[in-house]
Amino acid sequence: MLLGLQHLLGIETLTREQITFILDQAKPFQELQRNPLKKLATLRGKTVAIAFFESSTRTRISFTTAASRLGADTMNLQAEASSLKKGESLLDTVRTLDAMRPDAIVIRHSSSGAPEFVSQRLEIPVLNAGDGTHEHPTQALLDALTIRDRKGSLEGLNITILGDILHSRVARSNIQLLSKFGTRITLCGPAMWIPRELESLAPNVRRSFSVEDALSGADVVLVLRVQTERIHEPSLAPEEYILCYQLTPARLRLAKPEALVLHPGPMIRGLEIDPAVADGAQSAVLEQVTNGLAIRMALLYHLVGGAPPDAPHPAKG
Ligand code: NCD
């Protein structure tokens, strides 16, 4: 149990205390990534089912690696190579996996709400690895850990989120999380991707359609992937997006001098982000990936292991 949590379905329903607890618990697992020996035996004998009904590189590998570094086995479902292709329903597929008795299930699905639906029907912990345009809670947690490490605290920061906010579960989870810590959030991108309703997602959220305005004074710039299938003429040509919204070195200079650049990946270099920014000193993109492992290990450790709060320090155990 994780401060009363049985599943990780989204950030919206978490309290600030629960989020802080998860971020604090990730600390020893961050240390562990620096050790020559990275494997623990904490979850030996446990099995984590990884059911991805949508393609993924980093999130899938990160969850699989996190489980294996805790000593757990994994059961992998890959949508492209499964009976889903033959028309099996989500519920039948997860019930089949469940019948092999995993101790938790990690789900990515293109439908918003799929992990919650499954959590109401299975007895084991469910972890949301991204559902439709709804939430991607582990991504927001790893982003928060990265920001907290670099900035000392989340409190009072100016965060700018750049891109297709409307279709982004990463943006939604980040908005939910960061607003609980009193940050000021500016959403910026083409008007069609930033409807007014987004301002009512959480307190202290505003929209801006000028990238110069949105970046000025930012402590953190979160750049989202532009989905190439959503960017075409006549509504929006890629050249127009690049011209108006790409994060370039010149634009980044409008933010605070030490502003941090985040991107959840996969990055489309030359579209939403200039390669000089992606690889620049202010980019924390690879740190985000490493922190993803620590966050997912902390979550599996607590949700699957059910470790009591006074359990031995995992890095030393
Ligand atoms: C994101 C996702 O799939 O939601 N990627 C990720 O998990 N790191 C973002 C994206 O695909 O644009």
Chain-wise SSE layout:
Blueprint: H1 16-33, E1 47-52, H2 58-69, E2 73-78, H3 90-98, E3 104-109, H4 114-119, E4 126-131, H5 137-151, E5 158-162, H6 169-179, E6 184-188, E7 205-208, H7 211-215, E8 220-223, H8 238-245, H9 249-252, E9 260-262, H10 275-278, H11 285-305
Parallel strand pairs: 1-2, 1-3, 3-4, 5-6, 5-8, 6-7, 8-9
Helix pairs in contact: 1-5, 1-11, 2-11, 5-6, 5-11
Description:
This protein folds into two domains: 16-135 and 289-303, 3-Layer(aba) Sandwich (Rossmann fold), CATH 3.40.50; 137-284, Aspartate/ornithine carbamoyltransferase (Rossmann fold), CATH 3.40.50.1370. It has eleven helices and nine strands. It has helices at residues 16-33, 58-69, 90-98, 114-119, 137-151, 169-179, 211-215, 238-245, 249-252, 275-278, 285-305, and strands at residues 47-52, 73-78, 104-109, 126-131, 158-162, 184-188, 205-208, 220-223, 260-262. It has a five-stranded parallel sheet. Strands 2-1-3-4 form a four-stranded parallel sheet, sandwiched between helices. Helix 5 crosses helix 11 (285-305). Mean pLDDT is 93; it is low at 308-312. Bound molecules: N-carbamoyl-L-aspartate (NCD). N-carbamoyl-L-aspartate is lined by residues 58-59, 130, 136, 139, 169-170, 225, 264-265.
